[in-house]
């Protein structure tokens, strides 16, 4: 027996009210108190919930591509855009609050941009999606990639602690990694 449409609206209203009661962690990626060189990450950016959301979306999209289900392929871009937008807002917020900005942006580039772009290319090649979904994804990608030079030129050393003895360079950033016995550049 089909349910009444107004009941679905009540569920949506309940979920909206429930979602408004949740507050973000408002954490930033930073070092623990001195003398520790332990880095404490931000769960709003690369916590288990965000990572699971990305990985499950990626695998659902990969299954849709493998099964040639065009409708499912088109629907996969929506959650990618939602998670991408949320992570991008958190990254910008944290960068402006003084987080370990370059580390955060480098950690998230694989999940925020690389994997979804690969999936979107497959969807574009084999499936279909609404032009608005593509436009939103391209806009978010442009903002993410466009902010990288700003980050490099203005926030390169933000959040780093030079008193930590061991450094490893990834691209243009040095940060402490234990177990190397001295500064290591990659």
Structural summary, described in words:
The protein is mostly helical. It has one domain (25-161). The protein contains 6 helices and 5 strands; from the N terminus they run αββαααααβββ. The chain has helices at residues 5-21, 43-46, 48-66, 70-97, 101-126, 131-154, and strands at residues 30-31, 39-40, 168-170, 173-175, 184-185. The strands form 2 sheets. Strands 4-3-5 form a 3-stranded mixed β-sheet, covered by helices on one side. β1 and β2 (39-40) form a beta hairpin. The longest helix is centred in the middle third of the chain and has 28 residues, at 70-97. The termini are far apart. Residues 178-186 have low confidence and may be disordered.
How much of the sequence lies in strands comes to 5-15%
How helix-rich are the residues, as a percent range?
55-70%
Describe the global form: globular
Number of strands: 5
Give average pLDDT, whole number. 75
Structural class: mainly alpha
Radius of gyration, in angstroms, nearest whole number: 20 Å
What summary fits the major beta sheet? 3 strands, mixed
Tally of helical segments = 6
Order of strands across the main sheet:
4-3-5
- The first-to-last residue Cα distance is 63 Å
Spans of at least 5 consecutive residues whose pLDDT stays below 50 are 178-186
Order of helices and strands: HEEHHHHHEEE
Number of domains: 1
Signal peptide: 1-27
Transmembrane segments: 45-67, 79-96, 108-127, 134-153
Keywords: Membrane, Signal, Transmembrane, Transmembrane helix
């Amino acid at each position: 027996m089909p349910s009444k449409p107004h009941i679905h609206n009540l569920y949506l209203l309940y979920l909206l009210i429930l979602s408004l009661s949740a507050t973000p962690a408002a954490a930033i990626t930073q070092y623990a108190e001195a003398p520790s060189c332990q880095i404490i990450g931000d769960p709003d950016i690369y916590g288990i919930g965000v990572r699971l959301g990305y990985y499950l979306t990626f695998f659902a999209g990969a299954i849709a591509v493998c099964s040639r289900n065009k409708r499912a392929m088109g629907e996969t871009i929506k959650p990618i855009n939602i998670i991408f937008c949320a992570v991008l807002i958190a990254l910008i917020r944290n960068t402006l609050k003084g987080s370990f900005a370059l580390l955060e942006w480098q950690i998230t580039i694989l999940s925020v941009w690389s994997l979804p772009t690969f999936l979107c290319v497959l969807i574009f090649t084999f499936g279909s999606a609404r032009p608005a979904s593509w436009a939103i994804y391209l806009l978010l990608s442009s903002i993410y990639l466009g902010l990288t030079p700003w980050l490099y030129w203005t926030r390169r050393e933000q959040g780093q602690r030079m008193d930590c003895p061991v450094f490893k360079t990834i691209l243009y950033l040095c940060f402490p990694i234990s177990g190397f016995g001295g500064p290591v550049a990659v």
